[in-house]
Amino acid sequence: MDATELQQRYAAGERDFQKVDLSSAFLGGVNLSEANFRESDLSGANLIGAKLVRVNFRECNLAEAHLEADLREANLISANLQSANMTGAKLMDASLRAANLYGATLKSADFSSAILSEADLREADLSRAKLTECHLGRAKLMKALLMEADLQGVNFTNAILMEANLHGANLTGAILHGVNASNMDASDADLSRAQINSANLASAKLQRANFRATNLSWTTLRSADLTEAKLYRAKLCWSNLIGATLVNAMLIDANIHEANFRNANLTGAVMPDAGSGEPAKNEASTHVADQLRALQQQIKSRQ
User: What does the alpha-carbon distance between residue 175 and residue 136 come to, in Å, rounded to a whole number?
Assistant: First the structure.
């Protein structure tokens, strides 16, 4: 089937185009909304400006396709989108569960409320993309580019973000339980009110990041760089900060119960007030007060 035949059959009311070969077809600007292309081959196809609302691309081959298009509510479950160009695409409420987006260009695309759980986004470019309230549980995002992306309320539970670049991204209220984000760059990112329990942020670059009221309990921050990070009212209970850099970090009203700061660099850091050693309102014990005094002494010795 070629592009002309497809458009004629669509205009005649046909919508079922399963397992067709449209590789390298030019379909720019066409309206194919609600068509069924399940298991079809559209690799290398040009769909720039196409209207593809609620189209079924499940298990399609769309590798290297140009999909700068309207894909709202589209079904892209298990689709092959490797190296596809989806710059500025509209993918609100689309389902891309287990899709292969390895190396795809997704700059400034809108994935609001989309499902990307278990998707392969390794080395994908999502810079300035909008992923608010998106589901990315168990997704692979190794070396992905998410600079200045809007990730408010995103669910990253058990996702892999090793060496991903989230510089300047907005992760306000995001859920990152159990993520592996070692060597991630989230410098200047906003992670206020995020939930990051039992995560691995070892050696992460978190300079100037905003962790205001963020829950970082039971999280590994070993050797992480938190220079000038804002940790107002952050919860760091039982977290591992061995060898971390917290130069000029702000930890006012932070809960550091049983946190491990061994060999951490706390030069210029503003720690929670140890007070008189009485239990604080957050139920921190006298042991915590003693820990704070020791940390403050460590800071003074470095200055």
Answer: 10
Cα distance between residue 227 and residue 231, in whole Å: 11
Q: Specify the DSSP element, H or E, that contains 11.
A: helix 3-11
Q: How far apart are CA 217 and CA 221, in angstroms?
A: 10
* Entry pTM: 0.88
pLDDT tens-digit readout, 12-55: 999 999 999 999 999 999 999 999 999 999 999 999 999 999 99
Taking the mean position of all CA atoms in its chain, how far away is CA 19? 33
Cα–Cα dist 138/148, whole Å: 22
What are the Cα distances from residue 175, in Å, to 84, 196, 264? Answer: 28, 6, 26
CA 139 to chain centre: 9
Residues 65/45, Cβ–Cβ less than 8 Å: yes
